[in-house]
Amino acid sequence: MNYDYLIYLAIILLGTKLLGMLTRKAHMPQVVGALLAGLLLGPACLGVIHDTSFLSQVSEIGVIVLMFMAGLETDIQELKRSGKASFIIALLGVAVPLLGGYAAAILCGVGSSELSASVFLQRIFIGVILTATSVSISVETLKEMGKVSSKAGTAILGAALIDDILGIIALTMITSMADSSTNILLVLLKIVGFFLFAVVAGIVFEKIFGAWIRRYPLPNRRFVIISFVFCLTMAYCAEEFFGVADITGAYVAGLVTSLSPKRDVIYHEFDTVSYMLVAPVFFASIGLKVVLDSMSSSILVFTAVLLVVAVVTKVIGCGLGAKLCRYSNRESIQIGVGMISRGEVALIVANKGASLGLISDGLYAPIVVIVVFTTIVTPILLKMAFKKN
Amino acid sequence: MNYDYLIYLAIILLGTKLLGMLTRKAHMPQVVGALLAGLLLGPACLGVIHDTSFLSQVSEIGVIVLMFMAGLETDIQELKRSGKASFIIALLGVAVPLLGGYAAAILCGVGSSELSASVFLQRIFIGVILTATSVSISVETLKEMGKVSSKAGTAILGAALIDDILGIIALTMITSMADSSTNILLVLLKIVGFFLFAVVAGIVFEKIFGAWIRRYPLPNRRFVIISFVFCLTMAYCAEEFFGVADITGAYVAGLVTSLSPKRDVIYHEFDTVSYMLVAPVFFASIGLKVVLDSMSSSILVFTAVLLVVAVVTKVIGCGLGAKLCRYSNRESIQIGVGMISRGEVALIVANKGASLGLISDGLYAPIVVIVVFTTIVTPILLKMAFKKN
Known about the structure:
Strand content of chain A: under 5%
Order of helices and strands of chain A: HHHHHHHHHHHHHHH
Radius of gyration of chain A: 20 Å
Largest interface: A-B, 41 and 41 residues
Largest sheet of chain A: none
Number of strands of chain A: 0
Structural class of chain A: mainly alpha
Oligomer: homodimer
Shape of chain A: globular
């Protein structure tokens, strides 16, 4: 028996934590540090660690857990309340980057005939990656400035919730097409089938699970285990029976579980498994996949173009949406700027695309750059947008 | 990419939890249910799940986490206080089952020339498996009867602590010999080398870690991560550089970490990862390895003999030790009975032996039977031993 995976795991946990603490000191989220740790340890720099099947399976569980938690965090009541304005902001905030990413991909000639998916899907997938928003860094910045409950602040929070859902829908559409590129009608049928299945499974689960929880009011391990089982089963069924991404299944499972009265306990326990084991492996494994050999000059140009597109399209998309909903010019800019940062969701989406032949390995580097850059730039721009009093 | 491991994981988590709840209802520990779930799902019954490399690696992390937690639970202060009496009880409680298991193995002709280790080591290893004590079920029973702080109760707790350490030493000796059966002197040198290394690493770690914790008094994730890194590193170094079992390394890491002021926080977080993911996989994987085809009549006879030996040798060994320390006859029997139950440690030891060619797959079944039987019988006998007032 080979015990290398033990020391790999130890190195990954140590590296992601140490660099995460450094980036935290520099007022950046720990995700940035974890990414850099993977980059540093992987073939791009030191070459200490290589991607093994064990690491990739643990990292897949990491993605599933992260997406489940994203669903779990969604406040469906809040979503109903924030309503139409948030929806319009999110819709344009997804549509404009989607088209912008697609246009950038055409402009730079991205897309390879060597991959299994068609060049059209590869290009539109670049757009899908750009749709993801991660507002945690904006929320922290807003908190620091005492502006979370400002008009722009609430709009950002509401729009981010809906942005997640729209992003999942875009991802589901594109990845399903990559899986069985033959018949678009069948693909749509399967997606509809999955969402019907999800609704039925969700209602049944919520009824049984909810009744059980009401009978045993104590916080209890069995609820956590059962929700983990539900999460894994939905992820598996999505992939296996509907050709829908496993992370979509996990997200939907999280949404359903968010209705449970034990939501906070469940979230807390998942969070422990996430930070102690599966999430560091996932973030590091993204860094491990970055290969700098493939950083040709065309990729460098593409990275620069994509960076600009990523920032500009979110500001324009969300800002326009806000303007349509009668926010002032200043507030519209604040909202647009608050939605710039991409985080773990962009990485999760990119990872999924790579496993489906939608993006080549060479594109990992630009995506990591965008996640890191937008995360750094968002709090700076956000402070500027608010300070212009 | 194949997603079967997701549904395997879901089935294992659900199965171990449901059967664990059933056994809990029957006043047995959940470990018994988890074992039965593996038995039921594996090739011995339904054949739904097969042992994959992913499951075996996750289960190995499970073992490491369980042994780390066993070390973490050890109260070194308590150990000093309980002192000589506990030591004598534990020593005889290890020595008698060790010899008893060896004798039973000779009697039944256990040991195969097809395995890599010598027949002598294979037989003595049966004894090593019998040394392990798991007092959690006794502690629960004593609590129920309000006898935890009785004279016999404290003796059981103290002896169980030392029993663990003596068991680890026996395991380390035998497994090291199996690894490099050529030179016994070199083996001993390596074992001594490992313990020297462990002491130095432990002191260095405790100093740095302790100083750090005192500087940042808040409970914090970084401490948990760092202790996990320490645990994995010690496990890896034990195997890789000293030919000592990885679980020995993990146990020692747990002992060192038990001195930390953050011990309770660390224990709690490890416990979450353990019950949510790695421990169910480990217990189920033991059940998965049981193959009933190999339950020949000779194995059935051996199972029966070993059962009697397992119960009798613990009672005699510990009882004799207690008698030597001037406990009354009644108390000596109570102490002996309280130490009967084997639990996860026996499974962990057996698992280790299998990976080193010390026991054949056919012996999993008798060992599982012993763990289940001693766990069921201990509370019943213990109540009888106390009720004879």
